[in-house]
Amino acid sequence: MAELSTLARPYAKAAFEFAVTAGDLQGWSQSLAIAGSVAQQSNVVRLLASPSVTAEQQAQALIEICGDALNDQGKNFLTILSENRRLQLLPDISQQFDVLKANREKAVDVEVTAAHELDAEQQQKLSDALSTKLERKVNMQVRLDKNLLGGAVIRAGDTVIDGSIRGRLAKLAESLHS
């Protein structure tokens, strides 16, 4: 899939630069997320892969499905993608756009998987500590996983901090077997 992300990169950068100039990063992010989700639906995937449907018809169908989620510039963007036969890249374009947006806003999405419910104070302390360590604003999502036994696993982009008891036991077992 590295090839798809490589093909998507210039489109994501172009959309990002336009959104920065227009001062509408959030609007573009939402529009691309919706278009990317639509492009992943099985019926739409078949439509985009069909050689009997013209690029113009593909763009028009996608624009109609997205409806009011797209402004005129978003519709033009989809038209350009369709002319270049790149509509299937929309999920990758959306993802790369969001990475560029997060870097510009100095923000990072963090997923915390905990063994037990974290109260508001614990979440705030964790968020503050991660914000200091990562030097970014932290957007934290917390979910429970009773299989962890205790502790938590934190994922921030490519960084994974495994502070779970299950992870520690796995490391211990690995060191005993080596």
Q: What's the CATH topology label of the largest domain?
A: Peroxidase, domain 1
- CATH architecture descriptor of the largest domain: Orthogonal Bundle
CATH superfamily name of the largest domain?
N-terminal domain of the delta subunit of the F1F0-ATP synthase
- The quaternary state of the protein chains shown equals single chain
Task: Based on Cα principal axes, name the global outline.
Answer: elongated
What would you note in describing this structure?
The chain is built from eight helices and four strands. The chain has 178 residues and is α+β, with helices and mostly antiparallel strands. It folds into two domains: 2-102, Peroxidase, domain 1 (Orthogonal Bundle), CATH 1.10.520.20; 107-177, no CATH class. The chain has a four-stranded mixed β-sheet with strand order 2-1-3-4. Strand 1, helix 7 (120-134) and strand 2 (137-144) form a beta-alpha-beta unit. The protein is elongated, with a radius of gyration of 21 Å.
Short summary:
63% of the residues lie in helices and 14% in strands. The chain is of the alpha+beta class. Strand 3 and strand 4 form a beta hairpin.
Keywords:
178 residues, alpha+beta, Peroxidase, domain 1, 2 domains, four-stranded mixed β-sheet, 8 helices, 4 strands
